[in-house]
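Forum > Structural Biology > Help requests

Title: Can anyone predict the 3D structure of Copper resistance protein CopC?

Hi all, first post here. I have the sequence for Copper resistance protein CopC but no way to get a structure on my laptop. I'd be grateful if someone could post the structure tokens.
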Amino acid sequence: MPRLRVVLTGAAILAALLTAMPFRAFAGQLITEDEAKLPAQKGAVPNSGRGITRGPKILVPDGEAAVQASPIRLQLKFQTFGGSSVDLDALKVTYLKSPVVDLTSRVKPFAQPTGIDMPDAQFPPGEHLLRIDIKDSDGRPASISFLLKIAPKVP
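Reply #1:
Sure, ran it for you. Structure tokens for Copper resistance protein CopC below:
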């Protein structure tokens, strides 16, 4: 029985992939309008992640609570101790809403063992409570939640 052989060009493969999979526009849009409209998670508040620990630290720049216009540069630093390194497979970024929104896949391309540097993160106006969880190579955890205040766009 003869076999059918199909040869696709690069453009045809790309077109097939784009139509076959659900496409979610993400060009720096960290939080969508619909996600921002979700109700706040009950009891969720910013925390500094302070405490005596040998685990990694997540450093949020000073002024993180200041009102900023979107897009912003979302930049966090990771600091490890005792020769360990950050385990990027353990990185989890969560938008604290009800239900929670997992932002990890949107942030992961901008994550490195030294931190997160997302140059043009877009947010809708309002207050956004984010939580970052990491572990170091020795399995020690760290987490922090912080509030971003995004100003309405000025015409």
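Strands lie at 57-59, 67-69, 72-79, 86-95, 101-102, 111-112, 115-121, 126-136, 141-151. Residues 10-20 form the longest helix (11 residues).
Shout if anything looks off.
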